[in-house]
Amino acid sequence: MTLTLPEVSDELRARLVDGLARVEALIESRIDHDDPFIAEANVHLLRAGGKRFRPMLTILASELGDGVSDAVVTAAAAVELTHLASLYHDDVMDEAELRRGTPTANTAYGNSTAILVGDLLFGHASALVAELGPEAVRIQAETFIRLCTGQIRDDRQAPEGTGESPGDYYLRVLEDKTGVLIATSARFGAMFGGCSDDVVETMRVYGERLGMAFQLADDLIDIESSAEELGKTPGTDLREGKRTLAVLRALESTDPADRHLQALLRSDLSADDAHVAEALELLRAHPALEQARAETRAVGAEAQDALGSLPDSEAKAALLALATSVTDRAS
After folding, report:
1. Residue 200 burial (10 A CB sphere; 0-12, 13-18, 19+)
2. Number of domains forming the structure of the chain
């Protein structure tokens, strides 16, 4: 499933497409290297495709102010490089073999090279942000800290004795793991588009909720979709032992009828396709799935509500439509 640009005028669409082309060209020029092997590894995931969701959001947010500028393009390139760098590391941690239909860098070059290329791309992102001034550097550092914090927490179960349910803990993890970089994408667009501090903060809040909704929708798609719709086998999260929101809500159930499903969800499903298929079938019929879908819509609505203080404009309408399109993927 792909995420398309929301309905916008031909003029705005042309500015977004042109801005993204400038971002792509800047990234390509910055990560080129005189060592052919390093150059190839640097562009491995970039040329595998992707939605370019984060830089598109940066450019769209800039339309709330003065629109695309060199600084906006630089900021958009920095957030996309940060995202790409994190994917190199994610694939090593997950022992993933494919990304966007292409062998992962760890498959193609080995874990050590994949980790180092991720580090190298983080370095390029930092160099770009440094061109934008000390406040941008501070925001990027804060973003990186929260990205790592979210990933560390995502690899652990919810701590006991806090009074927080595992499902609510997972939502908090997503604020850091996924929400913060999308928040920074929107924030940078408003900042370098010349918007007021109030609008910049509005876009930070919008972006964080949008990022959470984006991940929650992805989680649901992995449960609900067929192999034909996904382009890959569904239930990847179950096989990897990742407990996403619908799974956590099902595990919270006290209904004795759910014990078999709960036992399946707590078992090792990494090499048992039959049990994965059974767990998916039971989850699809369980109220926890609709609960997770409702929570996804609620988070998307929070993103839209954050825009309430903005005056009406085509850019605002596009941002509202973007939040709808993110959550509608899992409807």
Report:
1. buried
2. 2
